[in-house]
Amino acid sequence: MTTWHDKAAAVQADGRAFINGERVWAKSEQQFENLSPIDGRKLGMVARCDGADVDIAVAAARAAFEDRRWAGKSPAQRKRVLVRFAELMQKYGAELALLETLDMGKPIKYSQTVDVGGAANCIRWYGEAIDKVYDEIAPTPDSNLALITREPVGVVAAVVPWNYPMLMASWKIAPALAAGNSVVLKPSEKSPLTALRMAEIALEAGLPPGVFNVLPGYGAEAGSALALHMDVDCIGFTGSTRVGKQIMQMAGQSNLKRAWTELGGKSANIVCADCPNLDAAVEAAIGSIFFNQGESCNAPSRLFVEESIKERFLEKALALVPSYQPADPLDENTVMGAIVDATQLNTVMGYIEAGRTGGARLLAGGKQARTETGGYYVEPTLFDQVDSSMTIAREEIFGPVLSVLSFTDVQDAVRQANATPYGLHAAVWTSDLSKAIQTSRALRAGTVHVNQYDGDDITVPFGGYKQSGNGRDKSLHAFDKYTELKTTWIQIG
After folding, report:
1. Which active-site residues does the annotation give?
2. What pTM was estimated for this model as a whole?
3. Per the database record, which ranges form the Aldehyde dehydrogenase domain (predicted)?
4. Superfamily of the domain at 268-450
5. Which of 79, 124, 122, 160 lies closest to 456, judged by CA?
6. For the domain bounded by 4-263+469-487, which CATH number is listed?
């Protein structure tokens, strides 16, 4: 029987860019190494695209948009191609899952279900949705007819992160393509392989050349060139708040292109003493922070537990921590894999040290793991006696580190939860319906979970308040980012 390790040994990663329907190296011929965080193995060389490649890809996308080879197709025709794209994603699911795991270190079981499954579902959903979105007629006097129609914005740039390479790409490209735009996607240099393969699959599904282009490369080179490009009409970005601010500045100093950002988070998970199911709250708190190695912008990294139940809660939590020890990502039983690279590993270890020196009490983890593999692994880490002034309670760690804070008054917990520049996700656990509604309203976050965490569906928007970004991915609201509203006023008689 062929194992995932056998399949991994046979992988020959193609790191060339995808422009106008063809695989090409960067014009400069520069490349960079692609190393797997699982064991440090070299997966291959990747094209290091820069401004010259951006110019070529944007020109191809513009030509495709202007001749309407895609935008001119009916919504039903675009639907057929996107649904076929989703079907092929699932057909090649094992290949995509393996590339995803090798590239960024997540467990293969989740690459197959969450990443491939979620990406294919997203592409299919927007394909199915586009021929069901109606335009409007305004309530004008009988002597006039005013049409309100949606039109594609044109050339869309998408810059996505390394933690969910396929899923984040799909959240951007699916609504943009469904609406009739042409797209230039820049995946993270840390995990470019699945985005490049997706472009080939889209072409096989019937997407015309030039409509979907993928440029691997560094943010300061290819990413900045896209943000500054005068012929890009819109840019969607998911990543850090620091880079998101730069993207918006570049959009403003170039052609004032639309800039939509989904940025960092420091999500608060508030567990009250009247929590209806303490075991469920513990499992959600532990499972959600350690899922994807803690490399999720919406991870509930700040856990507020009411003082009267804190000791009982921590006892249950510590009993679960060992089940999240990092293990071989190519083993289907593994639930926590490798940190994406050495840089992020050092960042996470630096925050753990800051927690120690800052006065927090380390209850579990705190060390690098599986060092003999040559990969990058961190033990699931839990700090108690954290207060909101500590670095680990203020800054996004993006690793498997949970900070536990206590409270006696839920209003104080809400105040602390909101005392952050971020506002992505939050949660409250309580049996009191009034408290649940009042707390949910008071929490300044784009999504508030009640008596669960990570409840999610493509039908609901994803995004945040404050410095967690603007705009929303997912749901029909995503079309707002990639379409223009046009009024056509017609005089009758």
Report:
1. 262, 297
2. 0.97
3. 25-487
4. Aldehyde Dehydrogenase; Chain A, domain 2 (3.40.309.10)
5. 122
6. 3.40.605.10
